[in-house]
Every structure is written in C-alpha cells, then in structure tokens.
Amino acid sequence: MSNSKIYLNGLGLGSLSAAVYLVQKVGFNPENIHIFEKNTETDLVGGSMDASFKMVDGKPVYIMRGSRMYEDKVYCCTKEFWSLIPYDELGSCLDDYEANAKECNMDTVVRLLHANGEKDTGHDLGLGATEALQMARLIEIPESKIPADAKITDYFSEDFFKSNYWYMWRALFAFQPWHSAIEMKRYMKLFYHRMSDMDKMTSLERTRYTNYHSFILPAIKLITKKGVQIHYNTCITDVDFKESDDKRWVERLHLKNAEDKTLDSIEVRPQDKAFLTIGSIVSNHSYGSHDEPVSTTPVEKPGEAYELWQNIASKQTDLGRPDRYLRDVSLSRMMHFTVTFRGNLFERKFQWLVERQMGVQSPLPLTQSPWIMHVHTYRQPFFPGQAADTCVIWVSALGEDNIGQFVKKPMYECTGKEILEELLGHLWGDLNESEKTELLETSYCVPCRLPYGISQFLPRTEGDRPPVVPKGSQNFALLGQFVEIPDGIVFTTEYSVRGAILAINKLIDPSIKPPEMYFGQHHLWDNLKNVKAILS
C-alpha cells in the first residue's frame, strides 16, 4: 500500500471524510492522496457545507447554503469523524461540539407558529389511531415490499399531512408529500427513538459555529498540514474502465479546469484507488441579494458531479441512473435565505416570541406560510468574528411557486428585502411601522435557490442509486448523497461519512468499520415513550 495512490473528486464531505480516515486511522501516506477541487484555493470550498461573508457598505453580510442538526444516536459516524480532527490546542472538533452542547441546552417552548401568530407547543402531535397505524405499517413493511416509485402519499391519508407531527417533521428534514416512501420509512426507523421528544427537542444539538467553521475548515487544515495533495481549479469529468471476466477497474481519469479546458489525464494503476462523489444537491444554485431576486434561468448542464455520474453511468449501466434525479426540477427544488440583522431588535423580539434565549429553539415551522418557511436560529455569534450587535438566521422554504401572504408574488420573483418582509409578517402580524422599518433597513437578506436541493428524496426504484463499492470493483468506489447505503438516511452528514468509511472498509482496510445503527423500535422503552406521546 506504500506506493498506491488515492484519487478523490471535490472537497465535499465525502472526500474530506475519506481523506481524514485514511490519514488518521489507516495510516495511508498523505502525499499519495490526491483531491481534485474545481474551485480555486482562494474560493470557498466544502460542497453544500459552505459558509462565508461578503462586504456590503463596509459591513459583513453572512451567507450559507445549509443548516444541520444532530443528536447522540443517529450521527455516530459523524461524531467519530469529528473525533479525528483537531479543532484547537484544547482538543478535537468532537470535544468542542460536546462542550457547546453542554453550554446550550435545548428546550423548546413554542414549537410551531400557526395563523395569526397562534403559538403551539407541539405537545399534541395531531395523530389519531388511523395515522398511528399508517406510521407503524410503513416502519414495519420490508423495503422489498414497497412498490417502485412509491410516494409518501401512498401510505398516509390527507389528515396526516395536516398534523402537527408532519409540520414539525417537514421542518426538520424537508420532506414533501410526493417524496419517496422508502426514504420516509428510513427516517422514521432511525429517528423512532426521538418521536417522544418531537415537541421539546431537548435531544437536538448543533455545532458551536457553522458546520463549515466547526469541522469542514479544520478538516481541510488537517489534511493540508499532513501533506494531502489538493489540486484546485481541477475536476474529474470522466473515467475509463477496464474489465476482465467479472472484475473491473478504473484505469484513467479525465480532467478539466474551471474554464472548461481539458487537462492531461491521469493513469490509475490496479493498486491505486478512485473514490468518486456522484451528484450534488447544490448544483446550479443561484443567489439573489437584498435588492435582486434569484436567477431562474435554466442551465445547459447540471453541474460537474452530475456530469461525471452521467458519463460513468453511460459506460457502466449498473452505476445508477442520474437522470432520475434530474427529471423534474419542480419536484426537487427548494429555496432558503440567510439574514444578517444589525442591532438587537430582531433577537430581542424573537426571544420574546418563542419564550427562550436565541440558540435553544428548534426550527420553527410557520404552518400557514404559502412559501412553507421554517426558521432556524442559533446561539450568537454563529460565525467566527461576528460582531456582538449582529444576529444571523437561516430560513428554508419549500413552496417557492406559491404567492406570498403579505408580498403577493412567488418567492423566486422576490428580492431579499421582500422575502424578509414576508417573514416578518408571519412572525409578527402586528409589527408596528417603526419596528418594521428598522428591521428592514438594518438587515441584509441573501436568498438562494437550489434546483436539486431535495432531489435525493425523489421516488426511486432499485438500481437508481449504485452501491458504494459496485459489484466486481477492484479499485473504485462511489461517494456522496446518491449512493445506496442500506437503512441509511440521505440529506445528512451521516450518509456521506458512512459511505466513505464503507469504501475504505471494502477496498483498503477491512478493520475500518462504521458504527452500528441504532433502531429504537427494537427497544421497549422507546416504544413505551412513543405510545405515550401519541396518546397525550
């Protein structure tokens, strides 16, 4: 193994976690690990886990493309990954995460906000006997018995989608009713033990700062210091395969730079390995600004990670069906926006609204929002170096086509300021004009549109997603959110990290194994707590 090389595409979480495990647990020679990243060294990297700021009128405006939450049983691979990364001179990223969890005890009071500002604790899940039986049926039915392309609506009645449980569930995981029944089932199984905590969300945990600053950037610093070769302004566009009987190898990588210029290809020897991330939930994203809406102009190509997947799937037909996840943008898109507030007015009013300090509140569903908005707030500062008089929030939205209640336009046609005006209307319908003016004039809202943001939830059938290590593979694995990991849940850091561990286990070091998943339905106490929660 001393002279073998590892090739990875992109500095997303799949590649980063593979590189960290190879260096920290396998003892692989870092100088023989090569990562090809399409951005330049001065650009922001980290895939969908980026976070940054830009200067507007001499003041920083904060931006990020995602917000993630954690808990102690589901995210076992993620936490092991954090334990391998130095955070500072005091300890690892996991040490800092656990210290922050102790300092920030979650205890939600206002779990939902209904029409006319009606507060709801969420204690009443709104599930009757019929809905409880529907949930039990989906959890217990084997995946092999679920028809191809089955939707969540195939297993639940209309009343389920009007329940507090659904509103809270959707705010946490971004499911839509037409999404995959299999993905819904997997989430229900892995988060079964947390159903009884759906209202208080005391089990919810977050990193101290953004995910990018809390573990992505430290991971990049670690592997760079160790000597991993990161090739910026370069991406893998295609690979050549060699086959013999029932075995196959990747034997060549084709490269280009950000300007679409073809670069010299790389020979991949039989002893070398290629770990390829396929697909991306942030491909073709577009930003707006406080004064401009997002771009909705269709693009010619779906992005490099999809392009790579399409190219390899055209040569090896069992390596998934990328076009299945690109088939209908109206089913896979989402919007979100990051708001930077100056002064303490928003923070003060929000804390009064939810009856808790900023940072101990679960995501807040605005159940009557036509744009299906969910408000994520954090303990401040959420960005390193953030000024004391600044507050940053992030809001997801799943109904961009709908006409707003206060701003009578589809969300995608609205400027950041108009989007913020809609948000303020739902939070405080009785907001006086002076406070509204102050909030709008001392803030900056950056909207973002993700055409494929929730594409991994689309209904699917067997073969749409390839395994991490395809049948017969001798030297290549596939990573990211579009591979098939039995019982795993996409749209999580856990999925990307677990995939990287499985690739290493199968192709490099069988002693490296992912931790076992926890299924609460097999534990009596979890079942008793959930029955009590439904009946309460």
From the spread of the alpha carbons, the general shape counts as: globular
Low-confidence spans: pLDDT under 50, at least 5 residues?
none
**Strand runs, count:** 20
**Mean pLDDT over the full residue set:** 95
Helix content: 25-40%
C-alpha-based Rg, rounded: 23 Å
Which strand order does the major sheet show? 14-19-15-18-17-16
Which structural class best describes the helix and strand composition?
Answer: alpha+beta
- SS field, number of helical segments: 14
Strand content: 15-25%
What summary fits the major beta sheet?
Answer: 6 strands, antiparallel
Distance between the termini: 58 Å
Write up what this structure looks like.
- By secondary structure, the chain is α+β, with helices and mostly antiparallel strands.
- It has 14 helices and 20 strands.
- Helices cover 29% and strands 19% of the residues.
- The strands form 6 sheets. It has a 6-stranded antiparallel sheet with strand order 14-19-15-18-17-16, sandwiched between helices. A 5-stranded parallel sheet has the order 9-2-1-13-20, with helices on one face.
- The radius of gyration is 23 Å and the shape is globular.
- The N and C termini lie far apart (58 Å).
